[in-house]
Design brief:
homotetramer; 144 residues; 20% helix; elongated
């Protein structure tokens, strides 16, 4: 499994408060739920780069997840205030990779990190170039 | 809020084992998850009455939920073996109501009970008569 | 099943954006997820009345859900901005009831409404009077 | 990110049917839910090797997740019958790694694969040797 970290300083952040529903009997956030937060990070990333991910889907395109990786350092707990920091790692015609850091809000304490790899497909599931202007919007977040 | 109970003896059962993901920090099944089990009960009900709920959706129909009610008596916990007993309470051209009992498997100990009310709609969300042969399939579970 | 509505004008609101994870194959928010939003409403209700629900749990008390009811009018969809309006309906030594309205943010369009009934118990599950100062905090939200 | 695959032929399987709640608006199983299935695979792995994971937790031990990886090939859909095949990849005093394959039941068609790495900790979160007889039970699944 891979490395953890955001190489780019060019990230997008959003905050959330941990829901009771997101915890498990160990008293911490259930491990699959960080992937939900990553997805929220991607949505927010698109929004702050100039478009709504929903538009892309309404045009018949989807950024399907090909791989996901998650490294757990410290657990988040009910009612914690969390910052999810999302960065675009890689962008090519049909491919886009994101990195994530889940931080205790107001600190640089990384609780969880992760990466996802995506492929752009059309409604039939065929790989497609990410259409304009979305490719350009996404590329604004690329490390130089 | 309503009464709890299955008036009909003509029910359908399926078993499940409680998932870790379904628990919360209180150590019990999170209260919204019983509605997930109810939905599994409806799917199983249809299957045992002769059709697959998916077929109905593929024809463009949906049994949307109009109301849901849940009464919590005793909590289910991780790894518990559970029986969900589903009964059809009411059936009219466009309407169908189900009742549920969540039991500790092998006992008559009811942990949770519930009811849902559904409306048959088409792909545009317009109310429609439940098409044949599905109406007839469903009616097999009606109390006499 | 019951009526829908908030009789009290004394409510607490919070906003959320619908997550991709909260939708189902029908393209709308899965029906159980509204109960998750109700729980967030209760948390926010407590916070805005002067305490953190977590404190109550850390003292060994829990407001367990005895009943939940949900009425579905219109679906919420991915990326919608939603306001959850929470009201305290009833408060007695060991009992507290909440009502909820799920609104399209910025409108009075009620998508979903609901009610939950809760019982205060201690760590052993025995019914207990809601301890002070929490009872007083909660009572601030009571309709006159 | 890592490789996908089960090196060991010594695996444990269980079946599930995809729940409506597990799908998203794309009509497929939401990507985080495969991690829920992996956890069910681990539970089942323990059970078939001679113990209940719950016992380990009741003794104050936990196998916390340190890393998770998931590779998505083909989506699972509502009502699909799925087999989850779980294998123990690595076992050392305090560490245990599992691999998973999510198959269309009755076939060798791998929809999703994954790996998780776990650390044994006590109730205070301190790393501990996996206690006997659980270490021995787990080791029964090790490739020779």
């Amino acid at each position: 499994m891979g490395q953890l970290g955001l190489e780019s300083s060019d990230y997008v952040e959003f905050d959330l408060r941990v829901r009771y529903a997101e915890t498990d009997r160990m008293g911490v956030v259930y491990y699959a739920n960080y992937l939900v937060w990553f997805e929220m990070g991607r949505s927010e990333y698109c929004r702050q780069r100039g478009f709504n991910y929903l538009e892309l889907e309404e045009l018949g395109y989807r950024l399907v997840v090909a791989e996901a990786y998650c490294k757990y350092r410290q657990p988040a707990r009910y009612d914690d205030l969390i910052t999810v920091r999302t960065s675009l790692d890689f962008l090519k015609r049909r491919l886009v990779d994101f990195s994530y850091l889940v931080l205790r809000k107001g600190t640089e304490e990384a609780l969880v990190g992760g990466k996802t790899k995506h492929l752009c497909v059309d409604a039939e599931g065929v790989a497609r170039t990410i259409p304009e202007p979305y490719f350009t919007y996404l590329s604004r977040g690329l490390p130089p």
